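Below is a filled-in request sheet from our internal design queue. Each sheet records the structural input a requester submitted and the sequence that came back. We keep these sheets so that new team members can see what a complete request looks like end to end.

REQUESTER: design group, bay 2
PRIORITY: normal
MODE: inverse folding
CHAIN LENGTH: 314
BACKBONE (tokenized):
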């Protein structure tokens, strides 16, 4: 198995454990491809020899790896997914961030994870992705997202007016700070913080969640995954932002039509023994925890319940 390795080079906690992983992969004769800024950082800090850690472009890492390891938080994993998704390469998130809904394992568990991967003791979970087409005077632009698309008022005063239709039928005109169009994977991200529902990843659905709507009767709505959603920001004097998984583009031109539908590819996430979405909810959102318990009081892996054996860690 060939491992692709990417990560967030701004995380200080990345370097020492990753150097140990490179040593282990080299000693075990397990091939790997490592993204250029990570390889450069390891060599410049004197943690590995340059011959052990040859740098590769991110697209080469995504294409050559049988599994790509993404070291960082959820944002790092999302950026990596934008490279691996079209190839179908399975992706395992290694958390060095804070919450880490998508980055399932902690960095101290990476060697146990490699053991499981080499033994074939894992599964892949197919996650729905979205595609957005924008037709403007400059042509047709296409973006895709694993978590969500967001139309947002860009910090300007006042609301924006967004007309939305589903499969050609008008749904609503939203007067709000913005609108989130989310996948089930993204339902625990920005959408959740604005009152959207949690949708289990295996459900084929698209969620529309308004951001601070002007009218209290305007609520989130769950649509079928085969729906086509068209959005237009109506004319006003302020710019607005369209963001795909947090990567934003500013627009001054109004009445553009954004068309959102299911992407023609999914994202494959690696799941190791004992990992389940409900366990993630319990540990990350502290569901079922006593008031006196904190995240470390429960004494188990972030991804395993009390009655299952988690990855051991270091």
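RETURNED SEQUENCE:
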């Amino acid at each position: 198995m060939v491992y692709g390795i990417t990560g967030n080079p701004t995380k200080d906690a990345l370097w020492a454990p990753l150097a140990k992983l490179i040593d282990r992969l080299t000693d075990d004769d397990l091939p790997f491809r490592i993204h250029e800024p990570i390889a450069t950082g390891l060599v410049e800090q004197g943690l590995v020899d340059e011959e052990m850690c040859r740098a590769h472009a991110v697209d080469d890492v995504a294409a050559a790896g049988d599994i790509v390891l993404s070291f960082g938080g959820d944002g790092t994993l999302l950026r990596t997914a934008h490279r691996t998704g079209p190839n179908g390469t399975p992706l395992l998130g290694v958390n060095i961030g804070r919450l880490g809904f998508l980055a399932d394992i902690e960095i101290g568990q990476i060697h146990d994870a490699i053991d499981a991967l080499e033994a074939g003791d894992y599964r892949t979970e197919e996650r729905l992705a979205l595609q957005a087409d924008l037709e403007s005077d400059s042509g047709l632009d296409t973006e895709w997202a694993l978590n969500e698309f967001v139309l947002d008022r860009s910090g300007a005063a006042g609301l924006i007016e967004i007309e939305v239709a589903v499969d050609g039928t008008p749904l609503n005109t939203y007067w709000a700070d913005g609108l989130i169009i989310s996948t089930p994977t993204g339902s625990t991200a920005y959408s959740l913080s604005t009152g959207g529902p949690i949708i289990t990843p295996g459900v084929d659905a698209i969620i529309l969640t308004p951001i601070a709507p002007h009218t209290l009767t305007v609520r989130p709505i769950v649509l079928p995954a085969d729906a086509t959603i068209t959005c237009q920001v109506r004319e006003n004097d302020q710019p607005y932002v369209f963001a795909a998984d947090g990567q934003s583009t500013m627009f001054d031109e109004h009445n553009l039509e954004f068309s959102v539908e299911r992407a023609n590819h999914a994202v494959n996430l690696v799941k190791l023994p004992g990992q389940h979405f409900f366990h993630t909810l319990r540990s990350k959102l502290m569901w079922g925890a006593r008031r006196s318990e904190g995240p470390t009081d429960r004494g188990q892996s972030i991804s395993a319940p009390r009655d299952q054996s988690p990855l051991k860690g270091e």
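SHEET NOTES:
- The CA atoms of residues 124 and 270 lie 5 Å apart.
- Residues 15-27 form the longest helix (13 residues).
FILED BY: M.R.
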